[in-house]
Amino acid sequence: MIIASPAFKNGQNIPRKYGYKNENSSPPLFIDKVPEGTKSLALIMDDPDAMKAVGKVWVHWVLWNIPSNTQEIKENSIPEGSVEGKTDFGEIGYGGPAPPDKEHLYIFKLYALDTKLDLEQNSTKTDLEKSMKNHIHAEAKLEGRYAP
Fold first, then answer.
1. Distance between the two ends of the chain, CA-based, in angstroms?
2. Contact 109, 141 (CB under 8 A)
3. Environment class of residue 75 by beta-carbon count within 10 Å: exposed (0-12), middle (13-18) or buried (19+)?
4. What's the gap between Cα 63 and its chain centre?
5. What span, in angstroms and rounded, lies between the C-alpha atoms of 85 and 96?
6. Contact, 34 vs 41, CB < 8 A?
7. Among 128, 146, 117, which residue's Cα sits nearest to residue 87?
8. pTM over cut 0.90
């Protein structure tokens, strides 16, 4: 399975407009090679480098029940039927990069699941990970960098 973005290449800089303090638009994402038998997709975007700055991995976006036939998540939108959860900004939906100290690494993790999830909209990354347990049959990731 593959996740990529036309806005930035894996490991490269995420454009400024996707930052929390700028336009805070979610970047466009392309999805390919979803395994047969996938019932839904889930996405987590987080910042492991925040551990040094704020003492935890900062969650920027959680999205689940993405239809398995989705090939593109358009900029600043979510696929019909998908559900967004709560970020560490305390908000529902996308919260862009906002490193407090220096350049951070942001990871978009895509999961192919053998089920649709029954989660409330205000669910967190922890809730999502618990629901996905024993249902993941493929993963892909895209990494981007962002500096203050």
1. 31
2. yes
3. middle
4. 7
5. 14
6. yes
7. 128
8. yes
Are 1 and 29 within 8 A, CB to CB?
no
CB 68 within 8 A of CB 112: yes
User: DSSP letters along 49-98, please?
Assistant: THHHHHSSPEEEEEEEEEETT--EE-TT---TT-EE-B-TTS-BS-----
Whether 128 contacts 121, CB under 8 Å: no
Q: Give the count of beta carbons closer than 10 Å to the beta carbon of residue 33.
A: 10
pLDDT tens, N- to C-terminus, the chain (148 residues): 999 999 999 999 999 999 999 999 999 999 999 999 999 999 999 999 999 989 999 999 999 999 999 999 999 999 999 999 999 999 999 999 999 999 999 999 999 999 999 999 899 999 999 999 999 999 999 999 999 9
Residue type, 34: V
Name the strands in the sheet holding 83-84, side by side, starting at the edge strand that comes first in the sequence.
83-84, 58-67, 40-47, 104-113, 136-146
Residue 95 is encoded by which pair of tokens? 């919260």
